């Protein structure tokens, strides 16, 4: 059988009646400017050798603005030559003065490695002795000394900066004394808890620079988000110039919304998105069209992967289709990235792990299993498909969730909407205090010294009382045996990850991955089915105390899904809005979480085929919350019905809110209670799933009017008759649920 | 809600530093003024004076010992004997005192507030000793509380003027830590001088790593130097005790640490004497001789290495004798004295331990094949080596041997058939 080309496949797809929207993005010509004369001639020559004799407009403005001494944030889509935005000024500075130094920060080790090889290629062609090194956990002790003393460009990640470089700054004197530029790539990834940590790490970095007398310029690059400048300013504490005149060319892109057929008309239930994705991806893969499939969870990745490998096993061999997600070991990931670049891997199924700038080359087709959850994320994933001069196809397959349905049925909402805001809260007390400790370890604090936005004298005194600092005159000194950075992980609430140990082969027990503590509660409990690289494992024992999960390979036809019971207590109300019959509050709450049972769900039909208990200790969380309180309720609505209505509204909010405050679904939780513990009133809580809160609930409080309007809009636009899983969850006898929910919402 | 009450609520989520000071007394003092030194009398009674610099101060404790004072096996007067001997020999060595006088050595040890290196790990005690013509002077510069680093380093740097540091693990701990702390205040104090550095930890590992479970100074002291300490406070308690002192100002508890540090420093003198005597072979053959010979061999001092091996062959234990013969054989081979080498190895093939037998058989096979052109004997020894190998547990090195040997056998067989 002759293989079809991508344009053949696109032609066929046009006939497909499940496609409810077809959006074409016109190809774009390049916009360029001549290389500025002041660029060092050796750099010019090296660039010309690589076929670059002119700069794209954004690269040009980046260079010129940095030359003027301004801090910049450049917003660029995938594959637009963003690295030149920072490499050019940095190389120029070192070419001008061999003493100059630069520090590059990438969110992951993998991105740092990529960057080093790209940078070294240019440097070799320049013929200047510029030393660039990565500095991470893998750097051998023998090289470390050399990096510290002689590295012009040090490429690292925030974690390494936090735990290895800053606490030992005295070994990096030549870097800090001469630091001219700090490059922060993938700026948009520094949001939420991680971003709040990183903002504090940067405060520490700036303190150290000041101590050594340098005042570096920040060069940041970011994917498209609504507030790149604000985020960069929050992270670096400097005012920023935004560079967004992207001049890179792109080929024609087809952006297609695919809605699976309805299988149950009154309930508005559609065929599973996963099944449809399998079917679509198979067509591309069979025709040797390089395709990336995005799925929203690790489990989903593994399910799709196992289906696809099975489907195309005969034609392609299962090695040509791979999974990619957190929890795979670095070596595995490098191998997959390489395979994609070289074309030996035709298909990859990934979580949003591949949204980041990991270099996998440009693919032809991108399939999304459901709406990725944010406009920014969607464009990032879409950017994986599309070579500079070829056509590309992006298909978003909607699931039955309310937001997916809303998006595909209101394409203008997506295509006209500006992407989301990235929020951080560097002033989160827990995060701030952690970094104050590290900062004090690095250099003593002086009374009145600033560290971020809060007055910190009171915090320093608290740490003196806690016997962590010692006050002598107007200075505060570290006075403890410990090394504070080791106790503080930038990545998650808990440092401790659960290690996953495969004991299928008793003689050869191996570690196959790891997972954070909170996810492990629902994914690695006893008897859970854990999928890794398409292979099913059953958890034989989760040793919670030692944070180890022992698994064994199995072959079963189901996966598992765990339930989590949640309790809430209000500790303190900070702010309130009182309306006629309702109130909205913002304050502090305690959340208690306990996983209860898990269900076994058949892989093929997704039906429930059994369940079992989970025995794990309760976890407690103090955090910020916004809650909606109903003070007077129409008595005609019975308690049972009201409970359902609250659930319905909570269901809609759980989907709407992450979109409005830009966070992962797991970062903010929505829980409804018919009788809240503290008031006995019907209440819906929205809380940050991180100790101390990271500003999401606060954002909900501030922008509740927008969120309410979006929720009402979603419910009224839904195609179902009287409530379905795509909006308020379900229908109720004898009541217009949709209207009732809207009426309730409008009271807030 | 105030920040502090919020902090108290979040306490369970906070990373807590382990509670260390058992005695909780709240410090009311915000600053110490130059004139007002708490417990000054107690300090004075314990050989300590106060050093003032700018608005700040530190303590300096000084203790003197007569040269004939016996610390463990040796009296300190031995040091000059050792230095004379170093200046008399012709070979070089990393610990060589050639060109140095006993007064040029600077025996140095610090105490810090933590174990892991880093900017926040404060040195609270800089201790050192040096030997004059009449006595040993031990001096300790003590940080009264964090924040008094400038007088601490100022007083220290004013007083040091020596050629070579002698430390125990100072190359990777004390000295880098000192450099780190110095960097933090380098605007205010003199530069750090350049030093030679004898790190006795590395020397001790070479000599006693197989013999001692842990090559810590305290273990070396008891097992090798014959020093006995009474009521010593273990070094790992130092940070805890120091913080307690900082809080309560009463130096009583700190004196234990000062004594501990003083003894550590005195042991450095004895240890340098002891190790030097071994390297210089001043006590004739000892248990350490074989290690010393190998060390000299390793650093390329072949001549003195050979004579030390010879000494071991004369008076060493059976095991050491074989080790020495084995090493000597390699020396002879290098000097193209093939017959002498062969004789030595043949002896080892008979009496050596399993690994020595294998290596010696291989060497005999090589000599026979390449030097004496005796293919039959070469084959004989190769097969012997293979038989020995089969008796031991396989690992990477062993399988490499095996491969090489099999290749050798087939080559030898080809040669034999060709010749025959």
TrEMBL record, chain A:
CDD domains cross-referenced by the UniProt entry: DEXHc_Hrq1-like (cd17923), SF2_C_Hrq (cd18797)
**What are the Helicase ATP-binding domain coordinates in residue numbering?**
63-243
Identify the species of origin. Peribacillus asahii
Q: What is this protein called?
A: DEAD/DEAH box helicase
Kindly state which keywords UniProt assigns to this record, in alphabetical order. ATP-binding, Helicase, Hydrolase, Nucleotide-binding
Q: Which positions fall inside the Helicase C-terminal domain? A: 280-430
GO annotation terms (biological process): interstrand cross-link repair; nucleotide-excision repair
**What range does the record give for the signal peptide?**
none
Q: Give the source's domain of life in one word.
A: Bacteria
> What InterPro entries does its record include?
DEAD/DEAH_box_helicase_dom, Helicase_ATP-bd, Helicase_C-like, HRQ1_WHD, MZB, P-loop_NTPase
SMART domains listed in its UniProt record: DEXDc, HELICc
* Molecular function terms from GO: 3'-5' DNA helicase activity; ATP binding; nucleic acid binding
UniProtKB/TrEMBL annotation, chain B:
Coiled-coil portions: none
Pfam entry (one): RNase_H_2
Task: Identify a single GO molecular function assigned to this protein.
Answer: nucleic acid binding
- Give the matching InterPro entries: RNaseH-like_sf, RNaseH_sf, TPR-like_helical_dom_sf, YprB_RNase_H-like_dom
Task: Provide the YprB ribonuclease H-like domain boundaries.
Answer: 107-274
Kindly provide the name given to this protein in its UniProt entry: YprB ribonuclease H-like domain-containing protein
Native organism: Peribacillus asahii
> What does the record give as the organism's lineage?
Bacteria, Bacillati, Bacillota, Bacilli, Bacillales
């Amino acid at each position: 059988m002759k293989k079809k080309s991508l344009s053949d496949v696109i032609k066929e797809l046009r006939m497909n009646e499940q496609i409810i929207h077809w959006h074409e993005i016109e190809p774009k010509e390049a916009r360029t400017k001549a290389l500025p004369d002041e660029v060092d001639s050796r750099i010019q020559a090296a660039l010309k050798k690589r076929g670059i004799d002119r700069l794209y407009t954004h690269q040009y403005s980046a260079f010129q603005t940095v030359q003027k001494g301004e801090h910049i944030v450049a917003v660029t889509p995938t594959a637009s030559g963003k690295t030149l935005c920072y490499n050019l000024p940095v190389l120029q500075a070192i070419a001008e003065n061999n003493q100059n130094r630069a520090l590059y920060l990438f969110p992951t080790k993998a991105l740092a490695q990529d960057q080093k090889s790209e940078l070294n290629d240019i440097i070799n062609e320049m013929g200047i002795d510029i030393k660039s090194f990565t500095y991470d956990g893998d750097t051998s002790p023998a090289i470390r000394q050399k990096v510290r003393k002689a590295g012009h460009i040090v490429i690292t990640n925030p974690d390494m900066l936090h735990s290895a470089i800053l606490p030992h700054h005295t070994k990096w004197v030549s870097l800090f004394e001469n630091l001219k530029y700090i490059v922060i790539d993938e700026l948009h990834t520094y949001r939420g808890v991680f971003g709040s940590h990183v903002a504090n790490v940067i405060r520490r970095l700036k303190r150290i620079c000041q101590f050594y007398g340098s005042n570096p310029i920040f060069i940041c690059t970011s994917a498209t988000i609504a507030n790149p400048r604000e985020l960069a300013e929050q992270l670096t504490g400097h005012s920023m110039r935004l560079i967004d005149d992207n001049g890179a060319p792109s080929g024609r892109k087809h952006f297609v919304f695919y809605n699976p057929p309805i299988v149950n008309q009154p309930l508005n239930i559609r065929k599973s998105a996963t099944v449809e994705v399998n079917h679509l991806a198979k067509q591309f893969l069979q025709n040797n069209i390089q395709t990336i499939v995005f799925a929203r969870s690790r489990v989903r990745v593994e399910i799709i992967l196992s289906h696809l490998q099975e489907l195309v096993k005969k034609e392609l061999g299962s090695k040509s289709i791979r999974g990619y997600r957190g929890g795979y070991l670095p070596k595995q990931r490098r191998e997959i990235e390489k395979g994609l670049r070289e074309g030996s891997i035709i298909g990859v199924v990934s979580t949003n792990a591949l949204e980041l700038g990991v270099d996998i080359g440009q693919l032809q087709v991108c399939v999304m299993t459901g709406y990725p959850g944010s406009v920014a994320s969607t464009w990032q994933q879409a950017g994986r498909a599309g070579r500079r001069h070829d056509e590309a196809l992006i298909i978003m397959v909607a699931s039955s969730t309310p937001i997916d349905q809303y998006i595909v049925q209101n394409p203008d909402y997506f295509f006209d909407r500006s992407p989301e805001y990235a929020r951080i809260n560097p002033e989160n007390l827990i995060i701030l205090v952690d970094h104050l400790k590290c900062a004090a370890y690095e250099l003593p604090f002086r009374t009145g010294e600033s560290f971020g936005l809060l007055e910190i004298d009171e915090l320093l005194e608290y740490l003196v009382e806690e016997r962590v600092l010692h006050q002598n005159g107007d200075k505060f000194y570290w006075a403890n045996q410990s090394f504070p950075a080791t106790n503080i992980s930038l990545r998650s609430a808990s440092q401790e990850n659960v290690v996953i140990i495969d004991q299928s082969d008793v003689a050869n027990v191996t570690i196959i991955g790891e997972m954070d503590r909170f996810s492990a509660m629902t994914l690695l409990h006893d008897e859970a089915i854990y999928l890794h690289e398409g292979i099913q494992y059953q958890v034989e024992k989760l040793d919670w105390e030692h944070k180890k999960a022992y698994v064994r390979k199995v072959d079963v036809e189901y996966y598992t899904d765990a339930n989590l019971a949640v309790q809430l207590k209000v500790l303190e109300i900070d702010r309130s809005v009182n309306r006629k019959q309702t109130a909205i509050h913002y304050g502090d709450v305690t959340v208690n979480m306990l996983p209860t049972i898990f269900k076994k769900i058949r892989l093929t039909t997704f039906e429930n085929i059994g369940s079992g208990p989970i025995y794990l200790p309760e976890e407690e969380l103090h955090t910020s919350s916004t809650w909606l309180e109903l003070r007077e309720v129409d008595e005609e609505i019975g308690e049972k019905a009201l409970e359902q209505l609250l659930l319905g509204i909570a269901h809609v909010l759980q989907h709407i809110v992450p979109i409005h405050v830009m966070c992962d679904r797991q970062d903010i939780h929505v829980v409804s209670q018919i009788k809240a513990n503290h008031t006995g009133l019907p209440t819906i809580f929205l809380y940050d799933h991180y100790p101390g809160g990271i500003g999401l609930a606060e954002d909900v409080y501030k922008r509740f009017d927008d969120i309410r309007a979006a929720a009402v809009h979603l419910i009224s636009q839904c195609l179902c008759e009287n409530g379905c899983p795509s909006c308020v969850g379900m229908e109720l006898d004898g009541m217009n649920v949709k209207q009732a929910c809207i009426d309730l919402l409008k009271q807030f | 809600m105030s920040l502090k009450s919020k902090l108290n609520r979040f306490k369970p989520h906070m990373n807590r530093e382990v509670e260390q000071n058992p005695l909780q007394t709240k410090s009311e003092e915000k600053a110490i003024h130059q004139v007002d030194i708490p417990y000054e009398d107690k300090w004075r009674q314990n050989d300590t004076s106060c050093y003032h610099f700018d608005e700040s101060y530190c303590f300096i404790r000084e203790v003197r010992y007569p040269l004939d004072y016996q610390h463990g096996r040796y009296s300190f007067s031995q040091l000059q004997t050792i230095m004379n001997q170093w200046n008399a020999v012709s070979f070089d060595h990393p610990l060589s005192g050639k060109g140095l006088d006993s007064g040029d050595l600077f025996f140095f040890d610090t105490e810090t507030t933590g174990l892991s290196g880093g900017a926040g790990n404060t040195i609270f005690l800089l201790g050192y000793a040096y030997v004059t013509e009449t006595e040993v002077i031990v001096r300790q510069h003590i940080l009264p509380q964090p924040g008094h680093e400038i007088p601490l380093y100022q007083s220290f740097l004013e007083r040091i003027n020596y050629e070579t540091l002698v430390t125990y693990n100072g190359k990777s701990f004390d000295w880098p830590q000192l450099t780190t702390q110095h960097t933090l205040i380098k605007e205010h104090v003199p530069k750090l001088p350049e030093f030679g550095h004898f790190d006795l930890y590395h020397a001790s590992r070479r000599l006693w790593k197989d013999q001692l479970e842990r090559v810590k100074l305290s273990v070396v002291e008891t097992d090798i130097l014959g020093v006995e300490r009474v009521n010593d406070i273990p070094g790992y308690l130092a940070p805890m005790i120091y913080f307690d002192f900082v809080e309560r100002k009463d130096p009583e508890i700190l004196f234990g640490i000062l004594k501990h540090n003083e003894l550590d420093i005195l042991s450095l003198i004895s240890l340098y004497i002891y190790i030097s005597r071994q390297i210089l072979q001043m006590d004739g053959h000892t248990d350490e001789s074989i290690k010393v010979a190998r060390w000299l061999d390793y650093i390329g001092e072949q001549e003195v290495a050979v004579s030390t091996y010879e000494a071991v062959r004369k008076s060493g234990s059976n095991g050491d004798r074989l080790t020495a013969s084995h090493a000597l054989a390699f020396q002879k081979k290098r000097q193209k004295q093939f017959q002498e080498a062969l004789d030595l190895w043949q002896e080892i093939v008979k009496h050596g331990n399993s690994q020595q037998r294998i290596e010696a058989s291989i060497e005999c096979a090589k000599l026979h094949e390449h030097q004496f052109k005796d293919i039959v004997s070469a084959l004989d020894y190769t097969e012997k080596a293979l038989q020995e190998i089969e008796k031991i547990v396989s690992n990477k090195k062993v399988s490499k041997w095996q491969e090489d040997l099999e290749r050798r056998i087939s080559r030898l067989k080809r040669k034999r058939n060709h010749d025959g």
